[in-house]
Amino acid sequence: MDWLTLFTNLGTFAVASGIFAWLLKRLFEIFLSKDLETFKMQLQLAAFEHQTRFAKLHEKRVEVMAELYGRLAQLNLLMNRLTNPLHPLTDAMEKEVGESGNAFREYYLKNRIYFNEHVCKQLDSINGKFWSAWVDYHMSLSKGVDAKHSYEFLVKSFTTINQEVPPILKEIEGTFRELLEPLKKEK
After folding, report:
1. Residue 116, phi-psi category: left (phi > 0), alpha (psi -120 to 50), beta (remainder)
2. What does DSSP assign to residue 112?
3. In angstroms, rounded to a whole number, what is the distance separating the alpha carbons of residues 35 and 39?
4. If we measure between CA atoms, which residue out of 161, 99, 95 comes closest to residue 126?
5. Closest by alpha carbon to 122, among 167, 66, 172?
6. Model pTM?
7. What does the pLDDT profile of the chain (187 residues) look like in tens digits?
């Protein structure tokens, strides 16, 4: 074999190898580019689904929060009237307060899953204060209780509603406002 044939064969082999390598590289790039585009579309779809799910969850949470706060404010107003010694009492008012308390408690218990543990503790606390005031109020009306103890129960009920409930209510309002902050930033 002479040198010229060897160099010609080596040159041909090198050129053919170069072309083959270039073709493989191009095929690989095309394959990767298609996979990359598919992957990008899948990521965008997953992000959209997550964003939609989060938006719906947040929307539901805001609805629950608004309804719960409305019931809480109504109960607070009615309990203030009920325990106020200067406010005339009627059986209808007592019934309305009881129904309002039950409505708040039932709605809260059905929807507490939408709130974190801190908010639930706040709501449990205010619910307990309302219940305590309700029981004390009714103890003040009990037939077997003498006038002195009846007055003490009434004062305790009034004090609970007017001194212990407002700080908890203010804390709940602050927490609800913080939870609504993302809505303010979007507008």
Report:
1. beta
2. G
3. 6
4. 161
5. 172
6. 0.69
7. 687 787 788 788 888 888 888 888 887 777 777 777 777 787 778 777 877 777 788 889 899 999 999 999 999 999 999 988 887 777 888 899 999 999 999 999 999 999 999 999 999 999 999 999 999 998 888 888 788 888 899 899 999 999 999 999 999 999 999 988 865 554 4
